[in-house]
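Morning!

This is the sequence you dropped in the shared folder:
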Amino acid sequence: MNSSETFLPTLHINNNQNLQFAYTDNSSIYMMFSSGNFALSDGILSSKGLLIQDFGIKVENKFYPRCEAELIKAELGGFRLSWGEKLPKVFVALTEGICHIQIEKNLDVTLENYNISLVLFSSKEFTECIDKGNTIFSSVDFSINNTNIKNKCNSFSQKTKNICSRIIDFTPSSCHKISVQIKLVCTEEKNFVPDFNLLNTKIESLNKKLSKATLSTGINSLDKAYSWAKYSGYQLLTKEPSYGIWAGLPWFRDNWGRDTFIALSGILLVNGLFDEAKNVIRGFSLYQDKNPSSKTFGRIPNRYDAEGNIIYNNADGTLWFIREVVEYGMYTGDKTFLEEMWPVVKTAINCDISLRTDSQGFLTHGDADTWMDARLKGENAWSPRGNRANDIQGLWKTALDCGIYLAKILGYLEDVQNWIDHSELLSKNFLKKFWDGEKIADCILQDETPDFRCRPNQMFLVTTPLSFQEPIIPTEIRQKITETVTTELIFPYGICSLSQKDDFFHPYHIGCKNYQKDAAYHNGTIWGFNSALAVSFLCKNNSRRNAKELLFNLSDQFFSLGCIGSLSENLNAFPDKNGDIIPTGTWSQAWSVSEFNRSIIQDILGVKPNLLENKIVFSPEIPEDFPAGSAKLPLAQGYLTLRWETGLTEDQEYQRTFYFSGENLPTDLEIQCPDNQLIKLKGSTEVLVNVSFQKDIYLDFAKPDFERKYPCLEKKNFLEKIVALEKYNGHHLPTHTSVH
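The structure's back. Tokens below.
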């Protein structure tokens, strides 16, 4: 990669595509605009509210709105607008608290001194800041014209009542590029000095950070989606109130524990952003509930924000935190930081054992304390799963085993035997309670009754364990649930949150007048992170072709649905009447893009580092028809380089040759390969290994059943009435959480 290149391919958007595009300042501000559609644009916002609704340029006496730009180029740092060959082009980007706007004149146009104005539609508060004269700067002379142009472009200004139009007129000049900085964050600093190198510095930094990890599969659409997922994930890294990862834009601009630690691996660890990962982990650890009299003693927050609001109402966020503390150590070998986190991990596990674990070893919780946490009017759960959900038990086993592993690594053995006993008790009782010989229960209700609704949560039992851990269910059961999940829940474009055979299934998250959208949220609606997780799940069960088809569909969604270069929170389970897939929920969701990238690196390529033991577990599941390719993967202070070729043995079995080399990695790093092969890396010297793959197990994906009569489409507010009476699980009593 030479100095003029970036890791990120430029995307071209025409104004008739109605696609969204978004950027953040990695602190507290984001902007989102829609091509060709003013109504779908959020504008530029901070945690305090709207700052700039929209903008455009005025050349001579004609106004050119942003939404009418003929072409938008989304690229590293920001986006570029073009209204035509003879008109100026505009580049817009964000750095911390500043909006950068560059207007570039066309050098071929002879009208050297034509008048250009920047037109901003901003809130009254922001307009007042402009009037102070110390928040807009330019590299050329300009004046602020207070003339209101609403009458000239009235329809453009009608979306928000309290929007004011401001024109920034630039003195006619032969200067090719006009650079403007708009200070978006209120400051007491009266003599703010603009820095017009700030944007270039940020772009250089982004390019350096996000070029650490590279991937070339020979499949352009997949490689492009990988790069944009990496960038879109990083865009959600925030510093307010401390380092964290926004769960999703536009609504979830807080630090959410569960979302953060599911997303941390794919956004930070696999991309080599280890300092950022450490800061995020440390930031959450500081908010652990330290009050021994609290019902949530020992938990990491479910959510905390800049205003000081902290809530602890989930059962799994702390378990994901423990897992990611250990996975961070596996990527870095950083025992010093693990020592720092040890008291937090120890308190968390011991509090869960003493306060929230039953006599059978299960971690108990309320109906809405899992990731399926939607509530009707903030009270009754739309999808009650108390008091022992299968994914919580799988995560609890993973957290216990992580604690045991960490204790042994650090030499703190006083709690180890107690934790081992609880882990073994949980494993002993899990199948007795959850497995009926054919299927896994989604949860065990408080009265010991199993709920056998078919949901994607059973995937967590297979995907949650780290490379040194065994799943809580044996191989033969994994094969059976793979068949159930694939044929009943997974459509080619995503996995449903409830089987369409269930009476409570809702085909549409949005667009149905018969119920409010939260009824569908976890009762049919497709979740992006679950769909990417399904790629991992299929890989772990030798369903490479299924994994590839789903992965390719997800990669296409990056550039055809919603916010270009990212993945939404949700999709409607069923396409619309035209066969189109409809994105819903947030238009950019952290764990959606994170799980997409993580599944490629850890499950398709099969690279799982463990520098705490000076080894890498290598278990690739690259589909047969993937071309040859390569990857550079950051580890600790160095890199692992991997490339592969494809071929068939004489008896036509599927086999690949892999080549490994390292840079600044620990000496004599071992790579544990399939068939008990063990190779050692010695610096940059390339070593090879041949891997034969097990026979691929292909299963037919589920298909939307449009013929069935779904109760939610036949009866208005069908499920709401049941949930209001707490009868989702029939006559079984609900399990109220202690905190909500």
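Headline: The first strand starts at residue 11 and ends at 14.

More detail when I'm at my desk.
O.
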